[in-house]
Batch of 2 targets.
Target 1
Amino acid sequence: APAFAERTAVTAARLVDVEAGKLRTNAVVVVDGERIVEVRDDGQVPADAKRIDLGDVTFVPGLIDCHVHIAGQSGEFYTNMFRRSAIDRAVFAHVYAKRTLDAGFTTVRNLGSDEFIDVALRNAIDRGDIPGPRIVASGVAIGATGGHADDGTGFSPYLRIEGFSGIADGVDAIRAKVRNDVKYGADVIKFMASAGVLSEEESVGEPQYSQEEMNALVDEAHRWHRKVAAHAHGTEAIKMATKAGVDSIEHGSFLDEEAIKLMKQHGTWLVADVYNDDYILSEFARMNYPASMIEKERKVGRTQRESFRAAVKAGVKIAYGTDAGVYPHGWNAKQFAKMVEWGQTPMQAIQAATVNAATLLGRSDKVGAIKAGLYADLVAVPGNPLEAIGTMEKVGFVMKGGKVEKNEKTAP
Ligand code: ARG
């Protein structure tokens, strides 16, 4: 930081201390350059600091969404599929990045994008060329031929649709795909352990790789020091991925007692997009999604929420992830209320999106809490989110790396 940098003190009535699990009052967050240097509880602003007083609001650490698809968004199914290319998506991705940041999400983990749009976007944001959240990028998602990562499934073979080009079968091809993702800048590896909803396989949850294939994928990724996120709806696939040593199970729709036990044993995180079902069931028929997909959604929606509740109760580690992109970017915070409806306390839901998410990402030395030494990533919401979790959807102030990205008066 330059020698004459002026320190800034942002002040507010309350602050959610996610590490202590408590609410603090008379909050003063002193920022120097891109880092937090001091957090006070006495309302006192250091003499050399410029003050930004936000008044009767609550500070929360910059939010983290561990499952987004920043380079795309659901729309008319056949338009997205046949009249838009990866280049169209790349051109638009910065708009979604800005909406995500404005919603208070200062870090996201992108789990699968066409080509390496997420890597390019991450780099442009890191250079300061465009506004957006810090991105932990996966590059292309890896999956089996005919599986959830293969967009060609269900279409005429003459179309030769190659999906996200992460298709790989067999141990050697899978290892090569992992290396290819790493080569082009992936921070994390995403793969499809099971079938899915928004793809045309018959099943919604059957395993799509053998145990041997999953083991090899995780082994290869970890050798390159990349964590692994496994898309897994079905019980068997969840267990296989957990045994293979993945770092997080995405969706986790059909958990049984044994799956929960295995996840606890292995320290596997659950990242469950429990808001998604509402949006898919209300909007996807109108957007001409195939009826078979909507049928599959009916099979997972409620079960996923029940699984989530059971996992919370059993003490499985939970990190916040929404699958934003399936529903509109910028709506990322809508899931807080769902997580509370299905078994978490408001504090637990906020921890899932801050300190827990940072731990899953391996970045708790940089983000996920409001404390000295971390990046000055913080947001403010009106009222008290521990009493009314819906207020998380009304982020009025966003600071990322010490820079004010948004500062609006919020309606109480
Ligand atoms: N991307 C996921 C899939 O297609 C979305 C699942 C959404 N549904 C849900 N209930 N979470 O499988």
Target 2
Amino acid sequence: MNTVIVEKGEIGVIKLNRPDKLNAINMEMVYDMVNAFNELKASKAVIITGNGKAFSAGADVKEMMEMSIEQVTREGHMPLWDTMRGFRKPIIAALNGVTAGGGLELAMACDMIIAAESARLGQPEINLGIIPGAGGTQRLTRTVGKYRSMEIVLTGKLITAWEAYRMGLVTKVVPDEALMQESMRLAREISQRSGFAVEMGKEAVNKALDTLLQQGLDFERRNFYVTLLSEDGKEGMRAFIEKRKPNWKT
Ligand code: CO8
């Protein structure tokens, strides 16, 4: 793969690797990321980060400009979003620098976002005379609310990692040098839980963004019953009662 570096293991790592272009996402990178996620299906969690001084400055403007409307519609970035949507394990975005446009949309498609203190986040598409196209108006608004989202989308200005934290847009802000260590620590902490329960929990939390409250509550209850009857569920409760560490099967 030319545009991403993949590290396999219990915690998989995908590093966007077009540092001289601030990891702008071109079609090659879209397919490399799809392949990378497919290669990491056996990992317990995946961290996605950027090589160099950016997480990603968004879609590759040069390439995007040259694509016809038919090409964008037929061959666009959907394979990436579809793959991420279907990925059952938690994905942590580790933002190491500029995270803009499609780069922020990529981060928001992940399950947790850890930002280095120097990271800058935003949806600058408006400065190109376009608007976000992969969640930058929808996921962002559901996360930070209408009024802050409007300012970000309509001014295109980048905000600091701490501003993003105060809006609830990132899970945690860490010193630059601790970014990968902290992301790894979080991934490892999650990897020690029941794999099946983690998948069920991820699925249920994500449903909250897709549904009205009652549908979400019904979905959560379904997943709760499933975990309650699962082998790991029985083992976890038995271990608690027997005052010992659980021995997870998944
Ligand atoms: N596309 C292509 N090349 C880029 C991009 C980009 N998005 N961003 C930076 N680069 C290139 C620059 O052209 C430059 O290349 P070169 O050295 O060959 O001229 C190199 O990366 C370094 O960039 P800068 O010199 O500009 O670096 P600065 O540190 O001075 O500035 C900025 C950093 C402010 C981030 C600046 O690079 C910038 O404004 N970039 C564009 C950001 C942007 O507008 N992003 C939105 C793009 S549109 C989009 O993402 C729509 C998403 C639709 C959904 C699909 C998602 C996958």
